[in-house]
Amino acid sequence: MASSNTRSNRTRATYRCSECGWTTAKWVGRCGECQAWGAVAEAAASEPTGRTQAAPVTRPAVPIGQVSAEQAVHHSSGVPELDRVLGGGLVPGAAVLLAGEPGVGKSTLLLEVAASTARRAQRTLYVTGEESAAQVRLRADRTSAVQDQLYLAAETDLGAVLTHVEEVRPRLLVIDSVQTIGASGVDGVPGGVTQVKEVAAALVRVAKTRDITVVMVGHVTKDGSIAGPRVLEHLVDVVLHFEGDRDSRFRMVRAVKNRFGPVDEVGCFDLGADGITAVQDPTGIFVEQHHTRVPGTCVAVSMEGRRPMLAEVQALVTVPAGEDRVRRTTSGLDGSRLALVLAVLQRHAGVPLHKRDVFASTVGGARLVDPATDLPLAIALASADSGAPAPAGVVALGEIGLSGELRRVRDLELRLAEAARLGFTTAVVPADAEARSGPHRVRTGRVVDGMSVIEVPDITTALEVLDVHRRGQRPLTAVEDR
Is 216 in contact with 110 (CB distance < 8 Å)? Predict the structure, then answer.
């Protein structure tokens, strides 16, 4: 019996992945969880012995109706678009993780949040582990973020960070970034699985015990996911993704997890040399202002969270230069949705594009994944093929089925109201079930805020109504294409 207890209590070797924390009893070359090569190494682990004994409680349990909710109210961050995503602002005692690609503007955004909090006479502590204090000061001078109540520290040790918190006693703590902070006495290097878990857990404890808001910057991997163990996202209260194209100044913040608000809101920002500013109406960035009607274009109404956003879809159809395979190139659109729309156009609308090079993109670097983009994409493709432009002032929205029917999309009235507000005069939308079974294939006469709404049942009818698909037109030739 004694030897059995000795064997159960002694340390045995296990192997842990340094990327995701997955453990196994034997060494393997590839992690069974995250599929990373060469990331599994030996780590000592001991089995727990005995049973956990009862301990004194911090506070006695009380009926939930007697718990005060005043301490969990939102306070504005000073950045309206960020408040929209957070559900009203920052919550005292909350831990927020902001992740994004390098250079997207995470530090600039959080420096603006810290400066806005300091302007309201609330102490703010900004801890940088990636830059020196002088480098952050240069950015603060450029973005007008120098405030008396904004304290700055350059530290990479967790103990030193906690000491700064004791001395400054801030209402907002910004850590840039959690992967650069290391905890002494913990195995691994800063940024490793064990270190990130310990640092994040310590910062969350500080947020809860001191009732301050902690915002941590997180790195992302090459596939866009948050670097470090998955438990990092479980520890924090809010997970935000900051995204944007390097070639564009437009940035967007999305909430992936939010214990204090919705997760379907999107914040829009403009990142410039003078800092980052909120974009209240981003539609103008994604809609090209044409002086004349141009073939191969159509305006879509996409939902980004709860916000309708108009974006222009452009298409170009050319004759292949040789006998090689035709090209299908997209920018800002899903390639699989383009293939589906092309197949439906050929099979049900008589638009033969299987021997043409097709290029489809959006204006301003917008990324459209909403199924309502199917119809404007089909209209742009048919218009580019026939050379007939769509009428001026037209928006289209609707999902296309494999049989060519148009399916209604969510928040239709909200999308139409936004298009009418921006001055569009006509909207082509899918017909409802009653209209499909009626004697007329096209229903007109409905008006939303001065905008005429045309309901059509399928893609063929939509192209005929807009007169962008001229049957029997002479196809493009290689000479004309040049």
Answer: no
pLDDT of residue 439: 54
Could you give the CA distance from residue 325 to residue 436 in angstroms, rounded to a whole number?
A: 39
337 three-class SS: helix
452 belongs to an annotated ligand binding site: no
Does residue 186 have a known ligand-binding role? Answer: no
* CA dist list (Å): 66 to 58, 61, 70, 73: 17, 10, 12, 16
Q: Write out pLDDT tens, residues 341-379.
A: 999 999 999 998 988 899 999 987 788 889 999 999 999
**CATH 3.40.50.300: does it fit domain 73-280?**
yes
Whole-number Cα distances in Å, 61 to 58, 205, 206: 9, 20, 22
107 is in an annotated binding site: yes
Helix 133-142 and helix 106-119, axial crossing angle in degrees, nearest 10 = 70
- Residue at 186: amino acid letter: V
The answer to whether the annotation marks 106 as part of a ligand binding site is yes
- Separation in Å, CA 29 to CA 20, 37, 45, 447: 14, 6, 20, 64
159 appears as a binding residue in the annotation: no
Q: Does 73-280 match 285-481 in CATH topology?
A: no
Q: 74 exposed, middle or buried (CB, 10 Å; 0-12, 13-18, 19+)? A: middle
Known binding residue 102? Answer is: yes
101 marked among binding-site residues: yes
DSSP 353-416: -TTSEEEEEEGGG--B--GGGHHHHHHHHHHHHH--PPPTTEEE--EEPTTSBEE--TTHHHHH
Residue 78 among known ligand-binding residues: no
Report the number of secondary-structure helices (H) and strands (E) in the chain: 14, 22
CATH 3.30.230.10 fits 285-481, yes or no: yes
Domain residue limits, the chain: 9-43, 73-280, 285-481
CA distance linking residue 115 with residue 78, whole number of Å: 9
Classify residue 333 by its DSSP letter. Answer: B
Q: CA–CA separation, 316 vs 313, rounded Å?
A: 10
158-171 core/surface letters (b: 16 or more CB in 10 A; e: else): beebbebbeeeebb
Least confident interval from 285-294, 313-322, 352-361, 365-374: 285-294
For residues 294 and 140, what is the distance between their CA atoms, to the nearest angstrom?
A: 45
Whether the Cβ atoms of residue 438 and residue 378 lie closer than 8 Å to each other: no
- 195-225 per-position pLDDT tens digit: 888 999 999 999 999 999 999 999 887 777 7
